[in-house]
Amino acid sequence: MAQAFDPTGKQAASEKWGWFVALGVLMIMGGGIAFGNVLAATVASVYTVGIVMLAGGLLHLAQAFRVRGWERVMYWILSGGCYTVAGVFAFLNPLLASAVLTLLMAVALMVAGGFRIWSAFNLRPLKGWGWIALGGVVTALAGLVIAAGWPVNSLWILGLFLAIDLVMQGLALIAFGVLAKG
């Protein structure tokens, strides 16, 4: 018997609902561990960023040697070198790297919040624009709070965000799995 086309994957999700719930439980447990030691979770976050930067830098350098004939090859080498150095730096001094990443996160949140507020005011004739503005205010305030506590909060803020994200993703997967079952 031929199976009907299911573009949303509803049937597959309903058959595998238990896996979503199990993964959600594991993520919540991981979030609990991260909440228990936010400094270790911060260092783990920095190492993860370091691995990605190091891999990206090395791949960039490899690409630079593949395009040797191009007249701008030095830019490829410099770009790859910067990524590689940043990745190594994250491993050599994860606490200083966490301070840099925390400051960058604070600035990014403030800028993103500002853009959301600006976007909301451009949507002002439409219903619901205030919710977008409120979201922007909350995002900008989160950035300001992080910046105000910098650099002291650099030891725990990234780990705290990782813990919160793990728990929230775990809850979302559990809810999805339970609802997909039905």
UniProtKB/TrEMBL annotation:
An example Gene Ontology CC term for this record: plasma membrane
This protein's record includes keyword Secreted: no
Domain of life: Bacteria
One Pfam family hit: DUF308
Keyword tRNA-binding: no
Transmembrane segments: 17-35, 41-61, 73-92, 98-118, 130-150, 156-180
Protein known as: Uncharacterized membrane protein HdeD (DUF308 family)
Organism: Rhizobium giardinii
